[in-house]
Structures are given as structure tokens and as C-alpha cells.
Amino acid sequence: SNERIRDELTGILTSGHPMKFRLLKETGLLALILPELEACFRTPQNNPHHMYNVGEHSLHAVAAAKNDAVLRWAMLLHDTGKAVTRTTDEKGIDHFYGHVSRSVEIAGSILRSLRFDNKSMDKIIRLIKHHDREIVPRPRPVAKAVNAVGEDIFLDLLDVKRADKSAQISSDVQKGLEYMDLIEKIYNDMKMEKYCFELKDLAINGEDLIRMGFKEGKEIGRTLDILLDKVMENPSLNDKKLLIGIASGRLKEQKNI
After folding, report:
1. Using an 8 Å Cβ cutoff, are 99 and 85 in contact?
2. DSSP string of 37-62?
3. CA 20, CA 131: separation in Å to the nearest integer?
4. How many CB atoms are closer than 10 A to CB 207?
5. Is 168 within 8 Å of 51 (Cβ atoms)?
6. Rounded to an integer, what is the distance from CA 77 to the centroid of its chain?
7. pTM summary value
8. Residue 87 φ then ψ, to 5°
9. If pLDDT is split at 50, 70 and 90, which confidence band does 251 have?
10. What are phi and psi of 88, to 5 degrees?
């Protein structure tokens, strides 16, 4: 059954020897159970940042990831879209434009066919969706990334990015790991300062806006998003009275239109 296949594959990925997953490719089994992944072993990466084909890169990323089923499945599937997006330029360098969105599609199909539970599937898909996301190591960009990715998996995403970097050329690894460590430090410092990352962290909510006179509907969400953006820009604004003042100005503008 697909559930049994899922459990056996998870057992390999979370074992002490995840690289043994390669045996599935060598014996031909992988082409039968995960043909989309098998295709990755036939997809080279002629690129200055890579030294393995896509399949080998993915296995090395699995081995570099923390021994957690969600993280290791994310690493196994994170680049599946490269097998169907590879192009080569006039200099012989490979590119994989749009591979992230295709990886999300392929991974979603695989996870559903293997009967993954919704919670695990949601996390794996979100990690794949954001694994290539650029995060500038400054408070506001980090906060934006946390908001886009979801605070529940943000640290997991940094682990995914570390594992991904560890499976690239060795000269890139140390700098990449230090970069992720810096982002994590900024995030932890912001957490200590009770920084506002998501709407739930705002000192004001939709009910407050309704009491002020806002009509229920999309305008509530738009106003909260604007307030969150202002608080991310200036954390000191996350005060209920200050936010009510800003929202009141927006309400007056709407009434004058």
C-alpha cells in the first residue's frame, strides 16, 4: 500500500544512513515508486554552485538535515521541479527557472499519493515553497520573511537552507552557514524584544476596528495589514492607542472618498 511505502521510505530517510536511499535508484525501485524523483538523478547541474546532479544533491541535503521526518522529506523533494525546468545557456551553464513552483506541485502530488497527514504535508510544502527565499539579515526583512513563511516553521526553514547549502560546493558552505546563523540571531533577538511578526501579535484586532466604525469585510484585513507593515517598520508603534490613532486616520480618509 502507499501508506506502507511511505513508512518504509521515512524509515530510510530518518535512519542513521540516509544515503542508502541511493540503493532504490540503483536497483530500479525508485523509478517504480517515485519516478519524479528518479528523474532528478538524470538531471545534471552544470552550475558554479553545484557539484552533484539534482538527485545526489537532494540526498546529500537529506543527510545534512536534522533527523526529523518533515525536514528530511522536504530536502528529498525540494528540487524535484529541476528535472522539468532545466535549461542550458550559451556558456553551458544550467538554469532552473521556476523550479520552486514546480517542486511544490510535484511534492504535493507525491505527498498526497503517499497519504501523508495534512499537518506534515502543509509543513513540507511550505518549506519547499520558501527554501530558495532570499532573506536579508536585517530586522525588517527578517520580520517580513517570518510573516510570509509562518513563524511556526521559520527556524525549520533556516535548517532547510543550511542543509541545502551544505550539499553545494564546499567553498560556499561555510559562508552560507554563517549567513543563516546571523539571520537566526537577529530573529531570536527580535523575539526577546517581543517584535511583531504576525497579525496576532498586533496590539489591535478586527473587533477593535469594527468598534471604531469599520465595516466588516476585506477592509478590516487590509487595514490590519497596513498597521502590521507600519509596526514592522517601527516596532514602537505596537501600542493600542497609537494604532487606533493611525486606523482612525484611515477611517476618515475612507469616509471622505
Report:
1. yes
2. HHGGGG----STT--S-HHHHHHHHH
3. 24
4. 9
5. yes
6. 12
7. 0.86
8. -130, 155
9. confident
10. -125, 125
- CA 147 – CA 228 distance, rounded (Å): 10
Confirm if 114 and 5 have CB atoms less than 8 A apart: yes
Q: Which grid cell sits at 231?
A: 509596526
- The residue written with cell numbers 527554501 in the block is 131
Give the separation between CA 204 and CA 196, rounded to whole angstroms: 12
SS (H, E, C) 98-158: CHHHHHHHHHHHHHHHCCCCHHHHHHHHHHHHHCCCCCCCCHHHHHHHHHHHCHHHHHHHH
- Interval 14-62: pLDDT, tens: 999 999 999 999 999 999 999 999 999 999 999 888 999 999 999 999 9
φ, ψ dihedrals at 51, nearest 5°:
-130, -5
The values of phi and psi at residue 230, to 5°, are -70, -40
**Residue 83: all three cell numbers together:** 528535472
Q: In this structure, what DSSP letter does residue 94 have?
A: E
* Beta pairing partners, 95: 87
d(C-alpha 230, C-alpha 58), whole Å: 39
